[in-house]
Known about the structure:
There is one protein chain. This protein has helices at 17-28, 34-42, 61-64, 69-79; strands spanning 11-12, 15-16, 46-48, 57-59. It is an alpha+beta fold. The strands form 2 sheets. The chain has a two-stranded antiparallel sheet. The longest helix is centred in the first third of the chain and has 12 residues, at 17-28. It is elongated and about 40 Å long. It starts with 10 loop residues before the first strand and ends with a helix.
Amino acid sequence: xIEFGGLxxxxxxxxxxxDVLIDALRGYGFGSNMEFADRMVKKGLARFSGNQWNxxxxxxxxxxxxxxxxxxxxxxxxxxNLE
Length: 83
């Protein structure tokens, strides 16, 4: 099990770990996994930004920054394995 105590103060190359995780999530996006995207919309962590011809979702960065590191790591783990 990964311990997250004090990780909030950790940086990678001077960038806070929380920022790195949020950037990674934004980069991975949602793939074609509409179910995961819809769940994130219902939780207020994402928004639908597409239209009837082009489905697309965007992460709500202002909501992601409110999450704890362990929650961001969990989302990252899911997002990087989406198809």
